[in-house]
Specification:
Helices cover about 35% and strands about 10% of the residues. The chain is an alpha/beta fold. It has a ten-stranded mixed sheet, covered by helices on one side. α1 packs parallel to α2 and α9 crosses α10. It is globular and about 55 Å long. The mean pLDDT is about 90.
């Protein structure tokens, strides 16, 4: 691990990029982070995207994720896929699944489209229309149709569920539907956050600390039942694991190497990947869409990657001690915390040099009237 005051070296070239090829979507999900403030931006044309995709390939990027908006809403979607392939990159897709038809399956059979495809992730938020449609209106039947088509034809497909107050009581049924009925090898989950449209509906959707604990425990039980086929990179599962790791480190006096404890170090993506918005704007991450580094149409990508002040400041968070932040200065957990997602902080506080209260362990313990997650709810193996 580098010295505490030294920013880790970022990769010479970004390894991957998340590309929002359109801001348009055929749904109006109540927690979408990529809406509201994005409507004023115009989609790039086919030729402009081809120019940008070539620049990504020239920068030695190996993998791109095509997202939106809804990527399949572009009539030139497969033309852009072919451009990704021509520029020696692999690709994944994030989609709501509603526009996937038999014709879509046929289009994937052309050229190297299947060969270069890593995965297709579909968003499903319930075991039935009644639950799913509360967050993603009038879409369940079309989404499941698309999912079943992909599964039937052997595509590398997975599902991500965004957990909220709309579906937190449906977790067991949702897991059974996806892993048993549909027969997916795995599923992943995160949680609805106060970002984008999620800000408008935060009181309706976002889990509080007590709900995070309850949901996290149920997800851990489901992980045991399905032998690791349920995973997460954010949300209640990750938070419980992080809180136990903080407890363990505090008791042992030995800092965990899972993250750089005691610093605003939660965002490691900016050292190896970047985001491109649907108007060509380059950002440290699509969750940080307000922090524009430049535009791929007019700026040199490697210059932005290596020298943009925006991405430098995002990387420098890694060396800011939690104890230097006013609200964390006297917290007993400051030496073990990582500050949480800067995307949420930036949305709510218009800065990235601050912690997310949604990741505050002290508040979490107080809300649940416990002194330790590690003791009160040990991880079952």
């Amino acid at each position: 691990m580098p010295p505490a005051n030294k920013i880790p070296e970022h990769s010479k070239f970004p390894a991957s990029a998340d590309i929002s090829i359109t801001g348009k979507c055929n749904l109006k999900c109540r927690y979408c982070f990529y809406s509201d403030e994005m409507v004023a931006l115009n989609d790039l044309t086919t030729e402009q995207w081809k120019q940008n995709i070539k620049k990504l390939g020239d920068a030695k990027i190996m993998r791109v994720t095509l997202t939106g908006g809804e990527p399949f809403s572009r009539s030139d979607f497969f033309e852009l896929v072919d451009s990704v392939i021509e520029n020696r990159m692999r690709y994944s897709i994030l989609t709501n699944g509603t526009l996937i038809t038999e014709d879509t399956i046929k289009e994937f059979s052309k050229g190297k489209r299947r060969l270069r495809l890593d995965s297709i992730q579909i968003s499903i938020d319930g075991s039935c229309a009644e639950v799913h449609n509360r967050s993603r209106p009038d879409s369940f039947d079309r989404t499941v149709r698309g999912l079943r088509l992909l599964k039937k034809n052997g595509f590398p497909v997975t599902v991500r569920a965004t957990i909220s107050r709309h579906n937190m009581d449906d977790l067991e049924d949702m897991a059974a539907f996806l892993l048993e009925d549909i027969g997916l090898p795995s599923m992943t989950n995160n949680e609805a956050s106060p970002i984008g449209t999620g800000c408008t509906y935060s009181d309706e959707l976002a889990l509080d600390h007590c709900e995070i604990l309850a949901v996290g425990k149920r997800l851990e039980n489901l992980q045991l039942k399905y032998q690791g086929r349920i995973s997460a990179q954010a949300g209640p599962l990750v938070k419980l694991r992080m809180f136990r790791e903080m407890e363990k480190s505090k008791r042992s006096g030995k800092l965990s190497n899972r993250w750089k404890m005691g610093y605003l170090s939660s965002c490691g993506g900016v050292f190896s990947k970047l985001g491109v918005l649907h108007d060509g704007a380059v950002t440290p991450c699509t969750m940080l869409h307000a922090l524009t580094m430049g535009n791929l149409l007019t700026d040199d990508l490697m210059e932005l990657w290596n020298n943009s002040r925006v991405i430098q400041e995002t990387r420098e968070r890694y060396c800011i001690p939690m104890s230097d932040i006013d609200e964390c200065r006297n917290c007993e957990w400051a030496d073990y915390c990582n500050g949480g997602c800067p995307g949420i902080v930036q949305q709510m506080q218009n800065t990235i040099i601050a912690p997310s209260w949604r990741n505050c362990y002290k508040d979490f313990l107080a809300a649940n009237a416990i002194t330790s997650v590690y003791d009160a709810y040990p991880r079952k193996e």
